[in-house]
Amino acid sequence: MATGEIQNKPPIPVVGHLITDDDIGVKQGIKIQPINFNKVIKLLTDPHSTTLYDRHFHALQRLIKHYRNGLLLKDLVQAFKIINVCADRSAEHPAYLQPMKELLKICSLPFLKEKSSDETVYSQIVTESISQLGYLMRVPNREIRLELANTILSIYIRKPSNQAFRDQLPCSQAYNIAMLESSDVAETLVKSLSLMEQDLEMKLCLMNVLQHLSGFSKVNCDKMLSADAASRITSRMNEQDPSGRLLFRSIEILWNLVENGNKEEVSRQLNSLVCINALKDAFSQQMTQGYSHYDRQLRNDLLVISTLVASNCREAPFIETGFAKQLMLFATFQEVRSHNALVKYLKLGTNPEDFELKKLLINILVVLSKDPTSVPLLSESNVILALLSYVHPNENTSQPQEWSPAQFEEIQLHVMAALCTLGPLCVQDYMDCQGNTRLLLLLEWCVGKDDFAGHGNSFHGLGGRGNKRAQMRYSLHLMRSMVSLRDPTVNQDVSDQGAINQILDIVQSATRSDMADDAIDVEMQCDLLYILSILCSGEQHRKELFGEKGVDSVLRYLKTDPKKLQSGLGHHRMMLATVGAIWCCIVGATLNEDQFFEGEGIFLLLDLLEGAARNMHNLILGCLTDLCENPKAVSHLVTWRGKSDQTVGKLLIRIWKEEEKELGVVRKEDGTIADPTKPLIGVLQESAGVTSLPANSPSQAIVDISENMRAKIYAVLCKLGFEDLQGLSAEDQVTLCIIERYMDFKQGEVWNEITDELKQEGVRPVTPDEEALAVIGRASQELASLVVDLQVEILESESQHDLLEEQELYSQIKENHKQAEGTIEKWQDYVDRTSNYEVLKSAKKLQEMSIEKSRLGNTDRQLGSFHDTDLTNLQTTTFQGRQVRVDSTPRNIVNEATMKLQMPDKSRSVKLHESSYIFAQ
Length: 921
What we know:
Blueprint: H1 2-7, H2 21-24, H3 37-45, H4 53-66, H5 76-89, H6 97-107, E1 112-113, H7 118-121, H8 123-135, H9 142-157, E2 169-170, H10 173-182, H11 185-192, H12 200-213, H13 218-226, H14 229-235, H15 245-260, H16 263-270, H17 273-289, H18 293-312, H19 323-332, H20 352-368, H21 375-380, H22 383-388, H23 405-422, H24 427-432, H25 435-447, H26 469-483, H27 488-496, H28 499-511, H29 519-536, H30 540-558, H31 571-586, H32 590-598, H33 601-611, H34 617-627, H35 632-639, H36 648-663, H37 683-688, H38 700-707, H39 710-720, H40 730-740, H41 742-760, H42 767-835, H43 837-854, H44 859-862, E3 883-884, H45 891-900, E4 911-912
Parallel strand pairs: 3-4
Antiparallel strand pairs: 1-2
GO cellular component, one term: sperm midpiece
Domain Cilia- and flagella-associated protein 69 ARM repeats: 36-754
Pfam family, one: CFA69_ARM_rpt
């Protein structure tokens, strides 16, 4: 009954109460109510409501009011449709400009997203919307354009505010920047500059935006450059502007394009008469009329940009515009008097900006000198005279209006680095200004004991703090640059002033110093050796001046620890410079060669050849080849022994094999010639083939001689002789057969090339010449075949020799085994005789029989003087003397046996030492 009542009880009704977060106030912040954009767009675009302006403005104001805190990402398409409609209507009805301006202000606020995925979903829409902002620059209204510029700038630099929204979040600044970079607004703004020619304020505002967009973004810079931003901005940067902001903004944008964009593209866009003229006028204006710190900075920035253009575009019209001559004037007016009006009242102070300007002017002289047409201007402007005025000993004090010692040192080093480039271009100016004299005096001051502590500032002063090394380093750089010209006048002038002895003193002190060398010391020693090599090359008198002092220094360099060649400090370059000095300063001078041989120089060169890297072999072999012209050198070469007692012949053959492996010459596994038709040709020479060349052009066979070391190895071995070389294996002798016929093979190659060239040119020689060419070709192949036969014979002989040695070894092993077997048999017999009495008796009988057979007859027994040789009761089976030593019986047994043993004849006793046989009574 109760159960039925429960089942029939009517259900309790459930009332659903939905309470949102907004009702209880959980969500805080601004709530943006959505609005129907489609109705607004239809109202603005419908032909029936086109003239309902009041309704249009009312709807737009309502839209602006709803979205005054920002636009949703999903509404950007409709919002920008409305903005574009207002832009199109503004030409007929200017009242649309105000709502358009308000909408643009809203666009400057961070866009709002409802979901985290909205940024990805609507990224393309955001990009296109930002691009639309740039396109709106077409609206010919100043206020709208200013607002557009502010909006774009706000999107790029404004950070999201802390204002809270319900159900929405503002997009991050990084997202806004990424979307703006993916749009083409930067390119559009550059193109819009042409619309602002008559409105300076608007142009400055737009350039401010471009300055921010290019400040840290490579993407924006590349897009701006695609619109010729550098050319457009530079060509207009000198327009009338009382505030000076136009020039400042232009230079800042150019700097950003240089730093973040493609430097080559910037230079290419500035490579025009208009742009170079603009840079020239701006620099001249700032140079002559700028006095503030701000003006000096702009001046230096302009010079840096000009330097960049000149370095990347050698054909830039600096000379045509007169900019190059103007720069040379500004660079030299302090040192060389000029009556030019530009520098009449111009003075440079010692402030950092003017100091920087001086270095930049010196630098751009070097850059401009890459154009050969600028060399006459350098001479005309007395550039060398102005620069050489800094080549003199430094002082520790300065006058108030002069460069400080630190500034002078930095400029001096910069000048000498520039002279290394400019001096060789203006040799006559250098000689007229007594450049060698100034340089040698400075070098003498560098090695002197005058008190001077270098400041070591800047790149050029590296390693020169507290010493004169920086000045000495660049003095040697400059001298090396000048003597490298091999101009007889310059080199004779240097030699006449005692440069060789002066340099040798420096080299000698360097070789005898106990201090460890760093990279700069090694570099300077390389320069010293290189200068000596150039001065003494081909000059017998200068080689005599090199003399004993120079040879001793060179020998010390050759004794450098080989481990230092891999230290990374440049010792390998110093070793190459040493070999070059031997070649130029010692070879060809009899006295120098004799002293070099006495100091074991040949041995040191061979040691260097054995342990040096492959890229040094060519120079060392060339030097050895020339030294072998002296007969005394051959005995040194033959006497030398390297690691593992290696001879010079084996060393040269090893280098030959490595060279052929590098050239790709085909050889069999045993080293013999693989193809008799091309015994010396490598992969590179074969791939080049035979081409028709002019008579004055060397063919591949001739070029091959100079491009590898085989000819030098052949020349050295010719001096040594091919018959008496020691320490060679069969493989080495096989290779030696090829080396010995190197010249014959090379002649065959040349004749084959002549034949092939005639065929390619379609020229048929006369019959006698054709027969001669055929005979020469067959002779070359027959020679190669003979060499192959000789190589095979050498290998077979070596194989037979190895086989005989193997048989001798086996015979020796067999003899050793036979002796061991005999020893075992002897031991077994001894064991049998000592352990078995019957065997002992048999052995005794055999011994007696052997003795009897050895006698001549029995006649001696009949004589009375016969003495028996046997000892009575002696049971040994070997011939014994008076003393017997047996090492197999212990001492205690020997003592017992001695006590029992009674000898019948005391005169014939057996003395036992340490041990003895046990004899039976």
